[in-house]
Structure formats: structure tokens, C-alpha cells
Amino acid sequence: MQVVQESENLFRLTRFGMINCFLVREADGFTLIDAGLRGSADAILCAASQLGAPIQRIILTHAHIDHIGSLDSLIMAITTAELSMGKREARLLAKDLSLDAGENGKALIGFTGAKSRPSRLLVEGDRVGSLQAVASPGHTPGHMAYLDIRDNALIAGDAFTTQTGVVVAGVFKALFPFPALFSWNAVLAAKSAARLRELNPELLAVGHGPSIPSPARQMDAALEEAFRQHPEARQ
């Protein structure tokens, strides 16, 4: 697993060159954002140990298999860790794929579930340490991004990808079609991406691809493409 320090407090952990999770340094240790694929737990724990601090909290952006694969193993290894995630997304972690009134999108795929259950359910504006939860549905019904209020670094989950340039969830690119294939509601995803752009992040960190410093220009271009493919998102 490759470990890259992105800022004073943010470390990107990458497996297979394209699947990221993140360690965010706090005064008492690390918050882990996402849990990667199954089989990643030992490498994540090793990275935290080598960086000199324990993992105190785990938070999830969403419940897709590549973001929760090692969750149960990590919770078993770190029995004191607090697990937090978006209130709406928690149902998907439990493999409840039912939709609320007014929700609509493609068939929900990529949710294998986990045995672990969050001890804290997050809504827009909640804080976990220095991280502020930002509701960003679309890729999944309850997707959350997290903004580090200390330096305005945005950990955006799969609301954007950067594997082949900055791309909004739900946008089709032939070289990397997954943002379109696995996104539930592309119009809602584009609207959420526009909200995230309004935060004017200093750093854009995502679930797939390298982090982007000073990402305003790239985010704007990605939004223009999202609106071109899904013009109803402008409304």
C-alpha cells in the first residue's frame, strides 16, 4: 500500500494504484476515512503505526464495497474505535436497499454490506474531530464528503474521481467508466458536486485517483462536462 502525505494532517493510502482511503491526523491520533477493499486492514494499521499514532475513529463516505471492504476486520482490531457515517447511508451498509419517498435513480449496485454498525449517524454539518460532514448524495443516496476546517482540504469520496482527470460522479468517460456505471443518480450527483465546489477547497482528495491542490479550475471544467451530459442538473 502506497502512503502519500497530502498536507500537514492528511495522508492518502492507495491500493492497486487506484483505491484510496485516508488518515487524518488529530491531537489524539488518526481518523480513518473509508476502509478500502477486503484484505486492506493490516496495511492500513501498519501505515498508522509507521506514522506514529493510533486510529481512534473511522468514518465512511459511502457503503460501496471498495470503501467498506476491510471495515469489519478493522473494527475487530481496533475495538475502541468510533464508527461514524451518514444517517441515510447507514441503511446501505446493512444491505437495506429500499428507497425513501421522492428518491429515484438507477438500480443500487456494489453494496455487499458489513456486520459492523455505526455508533454515530451523521447529518449535514456534523463534526468528527476537525472534519465537517457535507451531504453529497447522488453517487449513492446518502453519500457524505468531509471538509477539514483547519485547512479546507475536502475529502470527497466518490463525488469526484481524478483517475483520468477530475470527473464528477455520473459522468461517462470511456477511459474510466466507473463514475457513470456505479453512480445511482447522475443529476443529483452533479448538483452535489456543484455544492462541493462552492466550498472552494484548497485540496481535493478522492476515492480514486491522486489528490489535486488548488482544484478550482479542474472542478469547474468537470462540472461543465457534468452539466453538458446532464443539463437538468442546472435547474
Q: What is the mean pLDDT?
A: 96
Poorly predicted parts: none
How many discrete structural domains? Answer: 1
CATH class: Alpha Beta
Architecture per CATH nomenclature, i.e. the level-2 architecture: 4-Layer Sandwich
Number of helices: 7
Salient structural properties:
235 residues, alpha/beta, Metallo-beta-lactamase, Chain A
Write the layout of secondary structure elements.
Elements: E1 2-5, E2 10-15, E3 19-26, E4 29-33, H1 41-50, E5 55-60, H2 65-68, H3 71-77, E6 82-86, H4 90-93, E7 120-122, E8 127-128, E9 131-135, E10 144-148, E11 153-155, E12 160-161, E13 167-168, H5 178-181, H6 186-198, E14 203-205, E15 212-213, H7 216-229
Parallel strand pairs: 4-5, 5-6, 6-7, 11-14
Antiparallel strand pairs: 1-2, 2-3, 3-4, 8-9, 9-10, 10-11, 12-13, 14-15
Structural features, described:
- The chain is of the alpha/beta class.
- The protein has one domain (2-230): Metallo-beta-lactamase, Chain A, CATH 3.60.15.10.
- Helices cover 24% and strands 26% of the residues.
- The chain has seven helices and 15 strands.
- A seven-stranded mixed beta sheet has the order 1-2-3-4-5-6-7. A six-stranded mixed beta sheet has the order 8-9-10-11-14-15, with no helix packed on it.
- Helix 6 runs antiparallel to helix 7 (216-229).
- The protein is globular and about 45 Å long.
- The N and C termini lie far apart (42 Å).
Brief write-up:
By secondary structure, the chain is of the alpha/beta class. The chain has helices at about 40-50, 65-70, 70-75, 90-95, 180, 185-200, 215-230, and strands at about 1-5, 10-15, 20-25, 30-35, 55-60, 80-85, 120, 125-130, 130-135, 145-150, 155, 160, 165-170, 205, 210-215. The strands form 3 sheets. The protein has a 7-stranded mixed sheet with strand order 1-2-3-4-5-6-7. Strands 8-9-10-11-14-15 form a 6-stranded mixed sheet, with no helix packed on it.
